[in-house]
Design brief:
This protein has two helices and two strands. By secondary structure, it is mainly α. The longest helix has 16 residues. It is globular and about 35 Å long. The two termini are about 20 Å apart. It comes from Halalkalibacter oceani. This is DUF1643 domain-containing protein. Pfam families: DUF1643 (PF07799).
Length: about 100
């Protein structure tokens, strides 16, 4: 299990001072995990795709996932939202 971002916070202001170098280091951990995995489950906040500040990181990870697309899965909630992150709480209504 790896995180897309090196830093996590329930509050957006907790991410203000994050270090971009650590984000680049984190991407290497993501690469290592992808190479060694039979099943890859991705998840990020439902609104992350629409936010410019996350776009570069998400685009980067999506490119990294392409060679593994046959092993990549994500969660979908009952409303059809995809890429639900487990930090919001798993539901038996997810598929």
């Amino acid at each position: 299990m790896v995180n897309l971002f090196a830093y996590r916070s329930k509050e957006q202001n907790g991410l203000i001072n994050r270090d971009d170098k650590l984000e680049k280091d984190n991407l290497e951990y993501v690469r290592q995990a992808l190479r060694g995995s039979e099943l890859i489950i991705v998840g990020w906040g439902r609104d992350a795709d629409g936010k410019a500040k996350y776009r570069d990181a998400l685009d980067s990870v999506k490119r990294e996932l392409l060679p593994f697309k046959d092993r990549v899965k994500c969660f979908r909630d009952k409303k059809g939202n995809v890429n639900c992150h487990l930090s919001v709480g798993y539901s038996d209504e997810w598929s």
